[in-house]
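Possible race condition, two jobs.
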Amino acid sequence: MNLLDPKLLAKLGTTQLRARAVVEGVLSGLHRSPHQGQSVEFAEHKEYAPGDELRHIDWKAYGKVDRYYVKQFEHETNLRAFLVVDASGSMNYRGPEGILSKLEYAAVLAASLSYLLVRQQDAVGLVIAKGRQIRYLPPRAAMGHFPAILHHLEDLRGEGTTDLAAAADQVAEKARRRAAIFVLSDLFDFSPGALKRLTDLRRMKNEVSVFHLLDPWELEFPFEDSTRFLDMEGEGELEVDPRAIRDSYLEEIGALCDRSRRACRDADVEYELVRTDAPLDRLLLRFLARRERGAA
C-alpha cells in the first residue's frame, strides 16, 4: 500500500501524520544549503544545542537571561527559509472527493519542507497570509521548532482574499539578509502588480520558489449540468450552464498559469504548477533534485 497516494494521504487524520508519510519518502533527497558564506562575520545567536562549539557560547547573554546561546558566524550559518502559505478563502476549494483541499495540500507540503530543512539544521520561519491578516513565526533551526510550525499549520481554515502583496511585504521586512522563500498559493490575486511584489523578493537576492497550487477540477472544469458557483473570497454566486462557458474558462485558467510561469521565469524565480491530486513525495523529490543540481 502506497501511503503517499493522494487519496490515501487525505484519509490520514492530521497534518503531522500526512507530513510524516511524505517525509519518509523523500529523506534521501535532502538538499545542500546553497548560501553558506565564507566570512567569519557575526550573524546571529541561536540557543545552545549539544555538539555546538563551547568557545562560541555568549557568556554575556547567559548572564542576562540565564540561558545558553551560541554566537553564529556567517560561515556557520545555514540557510534561512521562509514558508509563505496562502490561507485565503479560495484555498479551501476541494474538487474530487477523497483528495486534499488546496489549503490542506499546502499545509502538508509546508510541514514536509519544514521538517527536511530543520533536520539539516536550516532555520525555518512561517508566514500564513489571510488577506492582509498575517500570522508570523520567526525562523529557528532547532528540531524543537518543528512542533510549533505544525501547530500553526494544523486545522487551517482559509479566510479573506488572496493578497500576495501583503505576504511579500511581510517577508521583505523579516528576511533582512539573503534567504530561501517558498510560496504556496493558488495565485488568485488579480490586483495589478500582485505577483510582481512576490517576484521582487528575488531582486533582493533571495532565492524564491513558487508552488502554484490548483485543484484538478479547476484545471479541467469537468462540470456538465447546470451548476451554482460560489465566490469563496466574497459573497457572490452564479448559476450557469458549464458547457456554455467551458472553453472561455479553460482559456482564462490557462492564461493565469502562463502569466505566472512567465513572470517567475523573467524574475529568475522557480515556478512549479502543482495539481492537488499529485503525489507529494514525487513533487518534493523532483524539486529537491533540481535544487541539488542548481547548488552543485
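Job #2 (started ~2 s after job #1):
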Amino acid sequence: MGKSSGGLAPGEYFTMGNFACVEGAILAGCRFYAGYPITPSSEIFERASVRFPQVGGYAIEMEDEVGSMAALVGGSFAGAKVMTATSGPGFSLMMENIGLAYMMEAPCVLVNVQRAGPSTGIPTLVGQGDMMQAKWGSHGDLEVIAYSPSSVQEFFELTIQAFNTAERFRTPVFVMADQVVGMMWEKLRVPPAEEIELIERVVAEPGATTDREHPLFDYARDFVPMPIAGMGVRANIDSLTHDSMGYPSTDHEVSERMTRHLARKIRDHAGEIWRWEESFMDDADVAVVSYGSAARAALAAVKKARAEGIRAGLLRLMTPWPFPDEVVERVSRRVSGMVVAEVNAGQMIHPVRENARCPVVGANWAPGSLIEPRAILEAMEAVAST
C-alpha cells in the first residue's frame, strides 16, 4: 500500500478491516499504540508495529492488558493521541484502568474486536457479547461513547471519528467492532486530506498554574485545556474524587459537581454524537434494529421480507452508546413492532425495549457464526402476523 507522511495516500485499496482501523488511526494523528496481542484483533497490533514507526510513532507490547491501558493514560497525558485494541477477555482486564482514564479525563481510543464468549470462548469466531460491558463494565457512574462499524470502510471512518470525539470530550472512546468486520476484506476509499476533519487537543499553555482562577477541572464548563507532562504546567492529576483543581476531596458537594460534570459533558451533547442509518424505513411496518456485522445480515433479511410482501425496514445503530433513545422512540411510533438482531443472547434489546413504543422481540444468535438472515426473517414474520 502506498503512503504519505500522514498515512495512506488518497485512493482506493483492497484491505482488511483491522488494517483499515490502523490507517484511520494514523490519519487521525495517533502516534502511540500500547497493547497485548489477542485474537481476532491481533492484526491491528501487527499492522501498528509496522506502520507507526513509519510515520514517527511508537507501538509497544505491554506485559498484559492491564499495563496496556495504564500506558494509554500515561501516553495521553504526555500529549499523544493514543490507542489500543483487544477482544473480550482483554477488555475485561482493562476495565479498572478504563475507569481511571474516565476519572482523569484522558482522551484515548480502545478498539474491541469482539469474539465468541464467555471466557476464552471461540477466539477465531464472531460474537457481540461485550456491548453491555462497554457501558457498565467499569465501576462507578460513567457515560460512555462507543461506535459500531459494519464494514471495512466504516471501521476506517469511525476510528477517525473516535479520535475526534475523544479529543473533543476528553474521554475514552470505544470502537466496538467484531470478528467479521475486523477480518473481512473489502474496498477502502481513503479521501483527500482536505475531506478529513480532525479535532486537535486543546492543551494548557506552558508554565500555566492550576489555581482557583484557572482550574484544571472547571465543572461550570464542559471543556478546559489539558495539562501535558513536561510542559511546566503545575497541576494535580488524581484518580480519587477531586475538586476543580484536581485535589482529592470527600466533600459531598465536590463529588456531586465532579460526577455531574463527567456525565453532563456527554449527555448534553448526545444528539451531536449519535450516528445511525435507516434503510427502507419510509413505509416500514416492522423495523429491525441491529449493529455491526449483524446489521449486514439484517439488511439481507429486510430485502427478503419486502420481496415477500412484509413492509420491513432497518435501523442500524452506529453509536450504541450513548444510546440514541430519541431515535428509537421516533422510529417505534411509526411501526407496529421491532426486531433486535444480535449475535448474543440479547443485550442491546434492553435499551430498545425501554424506549420503544411498540412490541419488541429479539432475533438472537449464539456466538460463533454470523446470524443468518432467515432467523431475522422468521422474527419479522412473527411480529407482522400479530
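The radius of gyration is 21 Å.
Logs attached separately.
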